[in-house]
Amino acid sequence: MKTTILVDRALVITCLSAVLGLAGCQQEGTAEKTGQKIDRAAENAEQKIEQATEKAEIKIEAAKESLDKKADEAGEYIDESTDVSKGALEKAGKELDQATEKAAEQIEGAQESVVDKAETAGKYIDDSVITTKVKTAILNDPFLYSSHIEVTTDKGIVKLSGTVDSEKNIARAMEVAGSQENVQSVQSDLTVNTSTTGE
Fold it and tell me: How far is CA 10 from CA 13, 80, 105, in A?
C-alpha cells in the first residue's frame, strides 16, 4: 500500500515537471497562464493523491475486516475443537471408569466364587478326613471292632448307622466318634443286633 502511494506521488511529480517544462517552452504564454496551469496541475495531483489515499484506506479497512473475520472464525473453530476435545475426553474418562468398575466387580465376583469353591472343597476334604478318623478309631476300639458301623460326615456332623452288640456299645461308638478332631456333633441310627445278644 505504501508502494502505491509512492508511485502515485512520483507520477504527480513527473506530471508537474512536464507541465513546468512545457510552460517554459511556450513563448506566447504569460506568467498568469503558466500559474493557472500549475495550479490546475497541483489540484489534479492533490485529487489523485486523495483518491489514491482513499483507495488505500478502503483497501486497508477491507484487509482489516477480512483479518478480523478470519481471526473470529479461527477463534470459533478453536473453541469448537476445544469443546469437542473436552467432550471426547470426558466420554473416554467415563467409559474408562465404567470399564474399571465392571472389571473390579468381575474380579470381586471371581474371588467370591473361588473362596466359595475353596470352602466347599475344604469342607469336603474335612468331612472325608473326619469320616476316615472316626472309622479308624471305631476299628481300633476293643469294644467296637466287631460291630458293623457305617460312618458318614456332612459339615462336621457325623452320622453313625448299622448294628452293635449292646446299648452300651451305641454310647461307646458315639463317644469314640465325638472325641475325634473337627467333629461338630454325632447322630446315631445304630441298632442293637438282637441275634447276637440271644446267643
Answer: 5, 50, 85
